[in-house]
Each structure stands twice: as C-alpha cells, then as structure tokens.
Amino acid sequence: xxxxxxxxxxxxxxxxxxxxxxxxxxxxxxxxxxxxxxxxxxxxxxxxxxxxxxxxxxxxxxxxxxxxxxxxxxxxxxxxxxxxxxxxxxxxxxxxxxxxxxxxxxxxxxxxxxxxxxxxxxxxxxxxxxxxxxxxxxxxxxxxxxxxxxxxxxxxxxxxxxxxxxxxxxxxxxxxxxxxxxxxxxxxxxxxxxxxxxxxxxxxxxxxxxxxxxxxxxxxxxxxxxxxxxxxxxxxxxxxxxxxxxxxxxxxxxxxxxxxxxxxxxxxxxxxxxxxxxxxxxxxxxxxxxxxxxxxxxxxxxxxxxxxxxxxxxxxxxxxxxxxxxxxxxxxxxxxxxxxxxxxxxxxxxxxxxxxxxxxxxxxxxxxxxxxxxxxxxxxxxxxxxxxxxxxxxxxxxxxxxxxxxxxxxxxxxxxxxxxxxxxxxxxxxxxxxxxxxxxxxxxxxxxxxxxxxxxxxxxxxxxxxxxxxxxxxxxxxxxxxxxxxxxxxxxxxxxxxxxxxxxxxxxxxxxxxxxxxxxxxxxxxxxxxxxxxxxxxxxxxxxxxxxxxxxxxxxxxxxxxxxxxxxxxxxxxxxxxxxxxxxxxxxxxxxxxxxxxxxxxxxxxxxxxxxxxxxxxxxxxxxxxxxxxxxxxxxxxxxxxxxxxxxxxxxxx
Amino acid sequence: xxxxxxxxxxxxxxxxxxxxxxxxxxxxxxxxxxxxxxxxxxxxxxxxxxxxxxxxxxxxxxxxxxxxxxxxxxxxxxxxxxxxxxxxxxxxxxxxxxxxxxxxxxxxxxxxxxxxxxxxxxxxxxxxxxxxxxxxxxxxxxxxxxxxxxxxxxxxxxxxxxxxxxxxxxxxxxxxxxxxxxxxxxxxxxxxxxxxxxxxxxxxxxxxxxxxxxxxxxxxxxxxxxxxxxxxxxxxxxxxxxxxxxxxxxxxxxxxxxxxxxxxxxxxxxxxxxxxxxxxxxxxxxxxxxxxxxxxxxxxxxxxxxxxxxxxxxxxxxxxxxxxxxxxxxxxxxxxxxxxxxxxxxxxxxxxxxxxxxxxxxxxxxxxxxxxxxxxxxxxxxxxxxxxxxxxxxxxxxxxxxxxxxxxxxxxxxxxxxxxxxxxxxxxxxxxxxxxxxxxxxxxxxxxxxxxxxxxxxxxxxxxxxxxxxxxxxxxxxxxxxxxxxxxxxxxxxxxxxxxxxxxxxxxxxxxxxxxxxxxxxxxxxxxxxxxxxxxxxxxxxxxxxxxxxxxxxxxxxxxxxxxxxxxxxxxxxxxxxxxxxxxxxxxxxxxxxxxxxxxxxxxxxxxxxxxxxxxxxxxxxxxxxxxxxxxxxxxxxxxxxxxxxxxxxxxxx
Lengths: 654, 654
Hints:
alpha/beta, Spore Coat Polysaccharide Biosynthesis Protein SpsA, Chain A, 2 domains, disordered N terminus, metal-binding (chains A, B)
C-alpha cells in the first residue's frame, strides 16, 4: 500500500505544523535549519566529509521539556479516511515520544465514534484524549465561503483558541497527514525555551483579540479579492501578512513536504535530522525524487506498525494506566500460571484494539424490519467477501481480526474490488490481533454491537445465504409480527457443499434436488450432525410455514434475532462451543426457535483454520474447553436458577 | 513471540559491546551515564518536574562522525538460531543509522550460507558485508578449555584484531543478542572524539602485542585458577584486571542489560535515552521489572519489522546501490507503466529477500537415490505441515512466502509442534513477501535450489503423498537406473478428496476402492481434467510396471526429477501456467515421462487463495497470462528451434 491523496476533508492547507500558542508562536529565536547559529559558526570539526559538510556537535541545544511534562496536541479529524490517517500519525508520535501526551481531538460524529473506541481499547499509558464536537463549531466558521463542504473542518483550526480549555496555554496543532521522525518533545521545546516571554505576550495577544483579528482579516480578504472561497490556510497567510511580527516560521525540518518545491528539497538535503514528514503533495509518490523511497518507507513503517507495541510505560514518569487497564492487570496478576487453561484465561482478559468502520460507511436508512448480516473473519477468508456481497444485498456488519499490516492489505483488497467498493452499507470493523488464541466471540460481539438495524442475521463468513434470503427475512419478520408480539430466533437451515465450484441453487426446490443428488449435504452431516439436528431437515423439506423446534444439546443453528439479543460469551476463545453457548443463552432467555421454511444458507469448503487444527490435536485444548463449559453452566445456574439445569443434564446424556 | 534464551553458541559474555580499537578502547573521557559533566553540573533549568529531575540540554555533545563516514561493525555468528538473531540486530541498526556501514561477519558454514543469501537479496544501499571463516580461526582459540564446543565462537572475538584487515583501525564489536535504540553513529562517536590520541596509542598497543597479551593472560589464568574452562569474557576480564589502563568502560546506556542487577536498573531509570538493549539475562522476560514491557516491545518492533523498508538510501551520501540492484532499477525504469502486464513484469523483476534454513536443519546423509520433497507455501497452508511430515519421512525443502511478522508466527508454530520440532531433515526457507502478486515460481526455485539429495519430488503443499511413496520412489529410481541410464521424470498420479476428514488409503487397492465409491476423484477431474489427462488413469489402474506417456497441452503432473532439472520460469507470477510451463521445459529438454504404477498423492480441500480468486475474476489477469504464454513460446523457439513449435500448435487445437 502506498499512501494515497490527502483527503479533501482537511482542505489544501500547505503549512503542516501550526504551533498555536492559543494564537501564534511568538519568539525571537535564531534558527538556521534547526541548528543554533553558534554550532554552525563554530570552528569546523577535523572530521568533515569530502563535500566539506560538518555535522553539528549536538542534535539539539534547546532544552527538552521537563521530564514527565505533559505535552498537548490538537488534531481536527472528520470522516472515516482521516480517522485512519490519524492512527498512523499517532503511532509515529508514540514511537518517539518520551513524555505524557494529551490529545485534543476536534471530531465529527463518525471520527468520534471511531477514535473514542480506538483509544479506549488501545489503552496506551500516559496518553489522555478529549473530544470536541466539530458540529458545534460549524456555525463559527461556516460564514467563510469554502470550496467544499468538508473544507469547514480545516477552518476549525482558526477557532481552536476559543474551543480548547482556557487554562491550556500551549498546544501543537497537527494536520492528519504527517508522520513524525523524531520526538515531539523537540518540537515542544521550541515553546519551552522562550516560555516566560511568550506567555506574557500571549496574554497581550488575547487581550488584543485573536478571534476578531482572523475574522476581520478574512472579511477583508473576501472584500478585496475576487476569490469565491477561502481555505484555512488562506486566512492564516493573510493574518501573517498583516501581522508579520506575530509569527515565527518553524525550521523546515519540522515540515518536510513531499513536493517538487526546491526549497523543501534543499531543506532535507542539507539536514540529516528530518523531524516531520508532511504528505501534502497531491502527486505524493509520483514525485520524481530519489528520496521518495525514504519517505515512503518511513510512512509504511508506522502504517504497518503493530500498535500494541506502543502500549509501553514511560521511564521514570508516574503514569498510572487507564482504570480499565489497571483492573485488567490485577485480574491477570491473579491468574494462576500453573492452571492448564492459563492461556485461555489470559486471552479472555485481553482487550483487543478496535478500529470501527475502518472504511467509509453509510448507515442504512431506518426501516422497521431491516436485518443486518453479522459475521467475523480473518485474512484467510477475505476472498469470501465478494460472493457474500452478491448474495446479501442488505446491510452487513463485519468484524475482521487482523494485524496492522493485514489491515492495509485488506484496505487494498477492498479498494481494488469493484464489487466491494460499490457497497456503502457494509461496515468493516478491524479488531487487532493480540494473543495466541483466536478471541472469536469478542470479535463477533464487535460486529454485533455495530449493527444498526432492529434485527441481525448471525452468520459465519464461509456461508453464502440464498439470494432471496434478505427480502424473505424482512417479509417473515413482518408476517410473524416479531416487532411486537414474539421473542423469537428465526432459524435459517444450513447446508454445505464439498465442491470448490458449484452452481448455487436459486430456490428451495433446486436445493432439494442437489441434496437428493448428493451434491449438497446438511451442514456438517458427516462430522457433527447434532449441531443442526433439532432443525429437523425432514420436516423442513415439507414445511410450508414456520415451525417451532426445541433446544437440544450442542444445537448451533444460524439465527435471526433482535439486535438487543444476548452477546456471545467471550470466555470461549479459540475454537469450540462458541456458538453453542450463545444458543443456550437465547433458549434460557426464552427465545422461541422458529425454523423458516424457505430460508437456507450454504457453507463453502475451506481449509481448516490454524486454531481449529490445533484444537483437534491438543488434549489440553479439549480439557480446557471442558473446564470452560463447566464454568459456563455454573454461571447459567446462577443467572437462571434450576431452569438452567436442563442444559447440563442434556449434555450428560449419552 | 517472546525472545528466547541466548544461544549458548556465544557463551556467557556479559559485556555487550566491546569497542575494539584493534585492541581496546583507550580514552580519558569523562562520562557520567552518557552525559557530559558540564551538562550535569549546569544550573538547573527552570523547567523541572515535580521530582526535581532535569533533562540535559543536549542529547549528545560528542561530535557525530563526519557525514557519510563509513562505520565498521564486527559480529561473530554461528548456526541457524544466531543467524536469526543477527537479522533483528541488523534491522534495529539500519532503522536508526544515517551512515554507510561495513559489516565484518565471522561465520561458520551454516551462518555464511544464510547471511550471504540474505544480504545478497536484501540489497540495502550503503551496506557492505564481508565474511571471515570461523572454522579457520578455530585453531587459534581451541587451546583454551571451554565449557561447550560452540563457546569457541565467543573466544573468536579475542582474535579479531588479527583477522580483520590490517588497514582497519576501528571496529564496533557486537554480540548477536542486542537491539539498537539509537544511531550507531553515536557509539562510533566515542572513537571519533578522541581519535587522534587513541590511534596513536593504538600503534603502541600493536607494538606491545595484543595477541601475546591475551594469550599470556589466559595461560596464567589457567595456571592459577582451578577453572576447567574459560569463556571469552573471562579472558577479557582477566586482561582488564591486569591492565586497567587499557580499557574505558562504556556509559551504561550503551549496554542496558535485562537482569535484576541493580546497577543496570539504576542506569536506565536515570537516563531517558537508552541506546542499546542487551538480551543477556537468562531469565529474560521473566525478570520482575516494570519496564520489561518497554524492552520487549522495542525488541518485537524489530523482530517483526518489514526488512524491505530498510532498503532506503542515505541522505546526501553518494551510495551507489549494489550492481544487481542497479540493473534491476534500470530494468524497472524501462518498463512501460501503460502496459496491461506492468504489475506482472514489476513483480518478476522484484528480488525478494531470502532467509535460508530459518530453523535448525541437519542435511541428510549422502545417499545415491535419495529424494527431497520440494514445495512452497504461505501462512494459510501452515496447518498442512504436520500431516505432510507424517506422510513423507524423508528430507524436505520447503520455501515459505511470509512477512517478517509471519515468520515469527511460523517459528512459534514449529516450536510448539511436537511433530515438526522432531524433524531435523526438513529445511524451511523464508522468502519475504514483496509486491502485489504471488511470485510462486521464484519461491519454488528457492526450495528447489536448496534440495541436497540427487532427486527431488516437485510437489505442492496441499498434497499428501502415499505413506509408502518415499521408499517406493527410491526403490524405483534404483530399479529404473535413473542415475546412469535415463533422463526421466517419474510421474506420481494425483487424486483429490473433497472431504475435510477422510481416511487416507494405505494402498493402491484401497485408493481404487475409494475412487470407485466416489469418495476420491482424479485431481481436478471436475475443473481441469486436461491438467492430468496424459497420465492415463485407466491404464494406471491396471499397470504393474512404469509406463511412458506423451506430453500434451496443459499437462501438469507431479514429478520426480534429478536435482539439476530446469528451474521454474519466474515470469509466471500470481496463478496460472506456472507448473505447465515447467513440464513443457522438461519435455523440450528430452525428459521421458514415466508413470509409476504404485505411486499416488492426494490433494486435500482448501479455500482458494486470494491470488487465485483474483485470477478467476479479472480479465486483465487472463489477458496478461496469455501475453506471458506467448512470450514463453517465443523463448522456447529461440532455445529449441522448430521442435518447440509443437507446444504452440498443441495449445491452438480446439
């Protein structure tokens, strides 16, 4: 994956880093490409290269911020694509940082939903995040004519001084399309060195009224120029022009722009220590530049970086972990490493990082009987997605269990697929891999929690539903009056084919013909018939109307239920019993099991996953699963009393 | 994956970094945990934290090496496991480095084979590698009694001054189990600052005779101490004790050891800038230390780091790429980006990084008719390996197409599998993923080139051979006198099952019964019968002796051939025609095709790979494959003249 064009959302701002001292950076520093003049003027070191260059004696002469000083960063972020960009920016910042950070995020609803969950599950020590509602800021900037609706988000940088907490004196403002190549503390140090003076002037600045200043300038620009629109950068430039004393440009190493601009090129050719790379050229990697690979590789490093590795504490800074992380650590500490199920219990306690709606997504319009297909998958099932989209024309909520690098491959896969890119009603949620066992029910719960329709079809990704299923389910829900009358789970009978290629039946009649011809079987007919037996396939053949069936041990049908159904039990990690337990829970809560006479779904052949092969060969795995089942039944008794006894006794029958 | 115990190979040396100035580091520097005393003594900065700590104004006051100065590094490395460690060390070094590097590697045969291929295919700009034969050095150190045979490799650090080129004045000597967290230039700078003085003293040192010095010390130790063995570190310590003026210890940040040693802990708690982490504690990650996660994550960063991203040029240093890289760049520059096959041609020109024998491997004893099973796979077929090991008791050469992170998962998979860990005759070669298309034939060629027996069975990883096949093939080779008489390819008839679980036939009779029962089919009977048709399954049923068959269009049998058979044509990337072209080549070179009457192999069901799904849906893919086939036929004509026409005309028949 190569980085793509900068999202239009944040407009055409060319300045990457705005050091806003709730206003502008004011200092009289004396900079020469980031090196103090003294160093540059110092006698040449005997060690000079053939071109007569000389490396400075010191990487940085400005004092770094005090140990453990909290640094503040503000980012304006809107939409799905910018939310992905922010993650890469934050990873590069965390990789080099040594200080606690407070991120002030100005977000629209989409970005807030994504980033709130992400940071909540990321649990990085010594990182605090607060959100500011971009929608509330719109009226403050919407009077400025702008080329694109989303250009408004760029303009919001102008009102940050009024939005951020009054007590906050300094903040580094970052565009979403930058990558750090150094410690942000070095950037912060540009404040610190002159802090006394600046804070004083800042107060004066505030009294003078920054808000009035930019508004007047913008209004004036609009009067005197024939421009029909103003981006945030246009206004910043105009203010700077009118008040040159207000601003001190950053050394160019802090904004190495990937463009053909010779000035930028001179900057990074002269200076070995590039601090920040700005992906602001519309040409991006097409730029004919021999160093483009350096920039690209640096960017890819953090794009693919395992974000879990950034959950590291700071040296010598008291940085208590987030409360949830602390609870988890205590729970982990209480685990008995000698327990045969130690690995299972550790995996259950692991909270994986979650990136909701990794790709642009349009929520479906609200309809009373609508159904979302819910499923989870990993990289080895990606090739199922196109077929699934052809079979299910309705909304889907899919959770993908991936590494950071795989998430980029997935992105590329969707973007190069005409079928997948055409669908805006499929939400993809990335759950980042962590730990040795597959937390299948945790991943399923992420997909389930993000379904936005009143009903969900709980499927698996290696099943293709009948072409008519989406319409048929909605009609059945209406007909059965599930909305008001009944607490029911609609069973979709499951079949399987053993052939790679096979012509999908277009009706129940065709399906039955294939079944009789031995081209199709009922699902896991050879290996695990009890998983589907209560569906009663013989009755289904003849059925004209929905019929009720009774729960029996090991039953794991594919069902349609209301969105507020019980979650999957996250204790079942790896493979085995993860769906069975969910059906038990539905039955215990009094859901009727109604088999639909025209519904069907077909399992396609695939290689068994690594986790399931492990399951089959390991006795520990079997023993642990038994222990987890016992605990599950104990919990059932606690919740449902004597009524839950039937689940245990059913299992114990021969 | 967590880092494991330090390999015994390099003994128990506790000192990580030996700055050998062809001897020892001599300087009178004035260090306080890496910070110059001036900085420490300076007035406290107004910005101090609540604990009164103060950050130094400067990360480093020593001058960095001149821009583009070549830095020399020496590493002693022996065996498969240390070779893997070296890769992680080198990745961390390359990530931070800004100077050209020359690596002086002292290696045994195994490590040389691995690292030579690795660096040759890695093609990192501005990195030079030279090898020194550890076996030749053994006599120089083998007189020192040592606890373990492989401890000899540690002792070789003592003789480096005599081994490295006489013109080389300075070298940084690294153990294999260290990870950089900073630019090695900062370490090198410890030389540079005092270089004039040191080099002078060095000359005196040389005259004084380092070699005599350590030998005398070692001999004396052996006389006066009851020790029965001496590791390299024992000798270094003894020399230092006897000649304290010879050595200046490195600031502790350059050797942050993961142990319970309080000194080390004080070092890294006081100093924010850790430079090098040394994984020398036998307890490793079990150490009760709240910062262990920091160390672990830093290590995992480079363990999993995509090494391809380190192929970046240096800024402003004239660093011509290796000649092969230059040729490739020219070939890439000549590609026409408008060509529909551009992506294919780019993939063909990509040289993937190769790590041979990623895991310990014992070459099979030399036997005249021995056969190696050759195959390639990616992550999604890993679960086939155990079954394959059960079916094929002979040597195997397997190439795995993986990312760096996947290679670690693979390692974990093998280490936790009793079946796989028990096999020393299976060589695993990692080919690192690069580019969008699967270079299947390049990967196969890596496995083929590493087969060490006179014959190879060219298989695919989703096939399980008859349990008797290994013995039967060797008997057949002997009986058919392939060694002397015939140029032949022995055909192993291929079948397939469509069931996940299935009871593997133990004889041809059982196989035929399953075939008749419809539980087995001939391979791709439904989808692509022409791929196996010339094998003539009807004849095979009845055959008692090997029989010859004629080539026909699209034939792609599984064959046993001499190791020096033609390579696979690397132009076929992605899927389609990759094996067909190889069989054409065999036929063109006059290999007889002999079907073996008792041989068989069975394909297990699996999900189609991502690449093959792409192939099936894309017309560009089809068109390109056609273009590649045309070019292949043109090349055939060039090589084999009019005789090759038959391959083209055979295809054109309806």
